[in-house]
Structure formats: C-alpha cells, structure tokens
Design a protein that fits this description.
The chain has 3 domains: 83 residues, Orthogonal Bundle (Butyryl-Coa Dehydrogenase, subunit A, domain 1), CATH 1.10.540; 108 residues, Beta Barrel (Butyryl-CoA Dehydrogenase, subunit A, domain 2), CATH 2.40.110; 152 residues, Butyryl-CoA Dehydrogenase, subunit A, domain 3 (Up-down Bundle), CATH 1.20.140. The chain has 11 helices and 10 strands. β6 and β7 form a beta hairpin. α1 packs parallel to α3.
C-alpha cells in the first residue's frame, strides 16, 4: 500500500529537497555525523531563522497571516522531506502546532496581529495550562477561576504537568469564568503572560533529574480582558480544537521516528546477544508490525484528506491511542533487551541529550541517564498527554462505533 503523488506534488518535493540540501550543515547526511552540545545549540538558533526566512514554519497557514498557504498534500510532502532529512521544522511546538492554529481558528484580528508573527519568527514560547490536580482526564472539573476586575482578568488556581512552564513567556490556559454554568460551560480560554508576580512555577523533578513538567500556582495573576480566545464561556469548544491538533499526527511521517527506534533496538538486541531469543524476536516482530500498521493508517488518513472524507474527530483519537501504546510497549521491550545495563547510569556527565521526538531532556549532571533511559522515562507520559488512552477509547467507541455515551 503506497500513495501515488501527482506531478505538481513531486515538483514541490524537489524544491523542498533542494532547499534542505543547500541549507543543512555540511556532512549532515553522513552516517557518522555528530554535533557537540554547543554546535547543536548554535544550529537550532540559526535553523529557526533559516526556516522563517524560507517560509517553512507553519507553511500551511494562510498567506495573509504569514504562511505559504500550502495545500494539504503539499504540507504532507513538506513533512515527508523534513522527516527524511531528520531536519527540525518547528520554532516552538506549542506555538506552531497548538495555540497558533487555535488563534487562527478562534482568535480576534488583534490577537492574530499580536501573536501570529511572533510564533512564526520563533521569538515567543508557550505552555499549556489545562490539567489540574483534580482535573486531568475529567478536564471539565477544573477549578481555576478568572474574575473580571476592570479591564483585567484576575486568575487563581493551580495547574499541573505543565510542560516547559519554567521557560514559557505565555500560557494558553482554561479557567472557569462562570461558576453557576453547567460543567462544560462557563469555561474560557485565556492567553496569560507567565512572567509576572502572580505566577509561581515549581519544576517537578523526575527520576533522571529532568524537570520537563511543572506545577503552576496562580495567585491573583492577571491577563488583559481581551485575552479570551473564542468568546467568553466558550473555552471548552476552543480547547477541543487545540486538543484535536495535539492528538493528530503527520499522516505519512509519524511512524518514521518509531521505525528508527526499532532499528536501533534491533542493533542493541544483537549487541546484547538476545536477538535469537524466541520471545524477544516475537516481541520485536510484533512492534515492527504495529509501526507498519501506523504507516498504513497514515496513508489512509492522507487519502481521506485528499478526497475530503477524513473524519478528524474520530481518526485523531484512534491514531493517538495507537502510536502512544505502541511506543510505550517498544520502550518496555527496550528496557528488557538492555537488562542490567538499563539499570545502570551510563549517560555522559553533564550532557544535554537531544532526543528525536522529545527534544532536549535536561537531567542533573550527577545523574547522567542515557538517551535510551530518558526515552523510556518520557514514554510513560505518551498515553497521558493530549488525553489519556482511556479517554481516547471512549471517543472512538462513541464516534466511530456508535456506542452509548458513558
């Protein structure tokens, strides 16, 4: 099962491939290419500028808002070529993929003028303030309150598992703005400055010393009255749009990262002398099969998109459930293959590991977990972030299978 692309799409592919060959560092495509932490930092800073100048960041966005107005098929080709080259194609994932498209869909012209150019340039960082200590899967149970005081919202509450909150300049968060409204109503979606006295960020240290997640405490934090996106008390519908972007994946490229991880795992199994173990071989084959199913599902999604038959509301949760559970099973298998080696800290002292699909995962210098150990630890969040696996099953059951609501 493969996709045949029309000639104009292949012409566009050649243009993207030529640009990558011209702009990526010398030796990038060599098998033994490697960069130091310092070189990686310099490359990422320069690369964002190059992407912006070429118009590749958020290239599918409308031209009037700084995008290139790519068709869905052109956007797929763009993703495929960047994935083939293992080249980053985003400035800030939360901005490019989540809040940016949400502002384009629901925001006022003033919000678009204020935030969209900064997202495209990569000079603004974001975090997502949805989950709370008592409102994770049941997001509508959130307790954070926002009360209008003159021309500002005063916000009080707590958010948890907020990725990169310690680095973000803004949060897109949900707060209850009508305490008397039914559970899913009376919630608003606000754009809140993070660097203010009313916000305390508490990094949550994990087993490897990394602090990718944070707790955020809001005590009389403030945001302008016009920071509400999508209208007052309409936050639930707006948030579902954001989660729809998060739960989706690039149709024909999402599997590539997992294919590479499996190839690396095959090599590890041979090095560890367990590649001929029948149980390990069966588990490796099962994971490879699941990744190929993800690839075929991506092709089906692409065909649905091209023909206008895609049911994103149902396919997004199905895809997210599949890849997240597959990846967790692969990482569990990796730790079994590593055996005792996986329990020993083998990372480079003081190194900041850049991991494909994860990014920079910064552990303590005195707790040097290896890249494999960090990938395993991060994979534990796969079936939680963007909606738990249990929630995805409910959505698939109700929207795809037509089963009764809970």
């Amino acid at each position: 099962m493969e996709m045949t692309y029309p000639p104009e799409a292949e012409t566009f592919r050649s243009q993207v491939r030529a640009w990558l060959a011209e702009n990526l560092p010398e030796g990038w495509f060599d098998d033994n290419h490697a960069m130091s932490d310092e070189d990686q930092e310099r490359f990422r800073a320069d690369w964002t500028r190059r992407l912006y100048d070429a118009g590749w960041i958020c290239a599918a966005w409308p031209k009037e808002y700084g995008g290139r107005g790519l068709t869905p098929l052109e956007n797929v080709v763009l993703n495929e070529e960047f994935a083939r080259a293992h080249a980053p194609m985003r400035a800030d994932w939360f901005g490019d993929t989540l809040v940016g498209p949400t502002i384009l869909r629901w925001g006022t012209e003033r919000q678009k003028e204020t935030f969209i150019p900064r997202i495209l340039r990569g000079d603004i960082t974001w975090c997502q303030g949805f989950s709370e200590p008592d409102a994770g899967s049941d997001l509508a149970a959130l307790r954070t309150r926002a009360v209008l005081d003159g021309d500002e919202w005063v916000i009080n509450g707590r958010k948890i598992w907020t990725t990169r909150a310690d680095e973000a300049e803004y949060a897109f968060l949900l707060a209850r703005t009508d305490a008397d409204a039914p559970k899913h109503r009376g919630i608003s979606y606000l754009l809140v400055p993070m660097r203010q006295p009313g916000i305390e960020v508490r990094p949550i240290e994990q087993l490897d010393g990394a602090s990718d997640f944070c707790e955020v405490v809001l005590t009389d934090a403030r945001a302008p009255e016009d920071s509400v996106v999508g209208g007052l008390n309409n936050g639930w519908k707006v948030a579902m749009t954001t989660l729809g972007f998060e739960r989706g994946a690039s149709a024909t490229t999402g599997h590539r990262r997992f294919e590479k991880e499996l190839r690396d795992l095959f090599a590890t199994a041979r090095r560890r002398g367990v590649a001929d173990d029948p149980v390990i071989r069966q588990r490796l084959a099962e994971q490879w099969t699941r990744v190929q199913i993800q690839r075929y599902h991506g092709l089906r999604t692409l065909a649905d998109t091209v023909h206008g038959t895609k049911d994103a509301a149902a396919l997004g949760p199905l895809n997210k459930m599949w890849w997240s559970e597959t990846h967790r099973a692969t990482m569990d298998l990796m730790m079994d293959v590593l055996g005792d080696e996986g329990q020993v800290l083998t990372g480079v002292q003081g190194a900041e590991a850049w991991i494909p699909g994860i990014g920079s995962r910064r552990g303590r210098a005195d707790y040097p977990a290896s890249a494999d150990q960090r990938k395993f630890l991060f994979s534990l969040s796969d079936t939680i972030g963007g909606g738990t696996a249990e929630i995805q099953r409910n959505i698939v059951a109700e929207r795809l299978l037509g089963l009764p609501r809970e």
